[in-house]
Amino acid sequence: MLLVSVMGYLSLSRELKARAIDDIEAKCALLQHILSEIPSVAALTTDRHRLDDLLIGHEDLHLAVFDATGSHVITTYSPLARDASPLMLEALTASRLSADSPMREWSAPSGQRLLVIMGTARLANGEAPQFALLQDRQADGKLLSGYARALTIALPLALLIAVVGAWLTARSGLRPLRQFVEVASAITHKSGI
């Protein structure tokens, strides 16, 4: 039972991560499309509504836009992205992500587990700022924590039920043998052996 529970936990964790990766990749493609329609880097700070529309209703998504070198923050689109941007520049851009692997997991200063995808987008005027799209994995962590908590409660209970069930099964299965022993014992006492 413990092995099945652990395998269930690992499987759930893997599927949640795969879902998060699919979600952030889709948002990244949409982000690149929106950025391609923005006229210039200057418009990023003055015309924020287009990118705000991308993030609205997605409290788990955060966005930071950097200059073309990736060394200066142009704008951020959430308090988490604003607070994490300087550290992101240091931690994430120090070791550039390859084109094959533009995604990585990262922990924000607040301790939040984030899935981060970095990329470059071409604006309408040809400028190419870099961006970091962050997805907060806190909801996934809460789900996994709740699952683990439920397992710690259910597993001992299931083990107790299995032990009681096995005892009752063994007891009823051994009843004919006990009856045989009683009959043999009665015969032995009557015959005087």
Topology of this structure?
Blueprint: H1 2-36, H2 41-46, H3 49-55, E1 61-66, E2 73-76, H4 79-93, E3 103-107, E4 113-120, E5 130-136, H5 138-191
Antiparallel strand pairs: 1-2, 1-5, 3-4, 4-5
Helix pairs in contact: 1-5
What attributes characterize this protein structure?
193 residues, alpha+beta, five-stranded antiparallel sheet, 5 helices, 5 strands, rod-shaped
Describe this structure in words.
The protein is α+β, with helices and mostly antiparallel strands and 193 residues long. It is built from five helices and five strands. Strands 2-1-5-4-3 form a five-stranded antiparallel beta sheet, sandwiched between helices. The model has no long low-confidence stretch (mean pLDDT 83).
The residue-averaged pLDDT reads: 83
Major sheet summary line: 5 strands, antiparallel
Individual helix count: 5
User: Helix proportion of residues, in percent?
Assistant: 55-70%
- Spatially, the strands of the biggest sheet line up as 2-1-5-4-3
Low-confidence stretches are: none
**What letter string, H or E per element, gives the SSE order?**
HHHEEHEEEH
Q: Measured on Cα atoms, how large is the radius of gyration?
A: 30 Å
| Portion in strands | 15-25%
Global morphology: rod-shaped
Q: What class, by secondary structure content? A: alpha+beta
Number of strands: 5
Short description:
By secondary structure, the protein is an alpha+beta fold. The protein contains five helices and five strands; from the N terminus they run H-H-H-E-E-H-E-E-E-H.
